[in-house]
Amino acid sequence: MKTIIKFLPLLAVLLTFSCKKTDATPTPTPIPTLVWTNFNKGLLNNISVGKAGLIWGIGTNNHVFRLNSTGTDWEEPVNTALLTQISVASDGTTWGVNNENKIFKWDGKQWVNFANGRLKYLSVGKADVVWGIGENNHVFKLNSGATDWDEISSTVLLTQVSVASDGTAWGINSENKIFKWDGKQWVNFANGRLKQLSVGKADVVWGIGENNHVFKLKSSATDWEEPVPTALLTQIAVASDGTIWGLNSENKIFYLETK
Questions:
Q1: Where does the pLDDT of residue 123 fall: very low under 50, low under 70, confident under 90, or very high at 90 and above?
Q2: CA 140 → CA 108, 162, 175, 221, distances in Å?
Q3: Mean pLDDT of the chain
Q4: Is residue 2, in this structure, part of any structural domain at all?
Q5: Residue 113, C-beta contacts closer than 8 angstroms, at least 6 positions apart
Q6: What does the pLDDT look like over 9-35, one tens digit per residue?
Q7: CATH number of residue 179's parent domain
Q8: Is residue 235 part of a domain?
Q9: CA separation (Å) from 202 to 22, 166, 190?
Q10: pLDDT tens by residue, 59-77
Q11: Per the domain annotation, does 116 fall within a domain?
Q12: For a pLDDT cut of 90, what percent of the chain falls above it?
């Protein structure tokens, strides 16, 4: 009898250890889900993203708005500006064009007309990296003196171009064929067709397919994948930090978040 009592405390310790080991089983980490969230403040015709918190857009009345400092609504810096397209870089450089293809640059207080040339579409990577599409669909970039435009290539005609701060540039033509700038010429990216695209950096490229589904460049950089099959947008804007906003056919505003 004494022998049995002597071993009872040891048995209790072993049982306690066994219970604790079972309770410590790790809980599986949930897999993040990408979700398009409606930013339920106003409607926009055009949107551009420089980085998180640096968002500009064109309202349905062609007035220019930017996201306020709290990220909760839009503010209109200058109520006299009427533009049709805008582009903002991560360093804050902001350019736009109006319905006459005149070019404007934001100087921090007002829109200043850039008198040389006319563009129907432009893209800003940073202060000295500005590309645009001329009225004849030729592609131009701001020259080294930031005073005029140099023609990139006369052999490929594009309807839209997007350039990042690292110099990565992609474009599409009137047939929705995709092209990538290799530093000397436009190279056709054979996989897929897009009617609009946006470049954040070399490995951050997103686009809108012909059926309004949203695609991004795969990590292999050879094809496209569809992260959120339910998304139907008409425009997308992506920044180098991964911030992504978009618009749908009703001009409603959305941003991509991870939940």
A1: very high
A2: 25, 12, 20, 25
A3: 91
A4: no
A5: 102, 103, 104
A6: 444 444 444 444 455 667 777 778 899
A7: 2.130.10.10
A8: yes
A9: 47, 7, 18
A10: 999 999 999 999 999 999 9
A11: yes
A12: 83
Q: How would you classify the pairing of strands 129-134 and 235-238?
A: unpaired
CA 205 to each of CA 2, 80, 154, 163, 199: distance values in angstroms, whole numbers, following the listed order: 77, 33, 24, 10, 5
Region 203-227 average pLDDT: 96
For residue 48, being part of any structural domain is answered with: yes
Query: What total of structural domains would you count in the chain?
Result: 1
Instruction: At 29, list the tokens.
Output: 């980490």
Instruction: Supply φ then ψ for residue 2, to 5 degrees.
Output: -60, -35
| 84 contacts: CB under 8 Å, gap ≥ 6 | 45, 46, 58, 62, 96, 97, 98, 99
pLDDT range class, residue 1, cuts 50, 70, 90: very low
Would you say how long the chain is, in residues?
259
Q: Are 177 and 160 a contacting pair, CB within 8 Å?
A: no
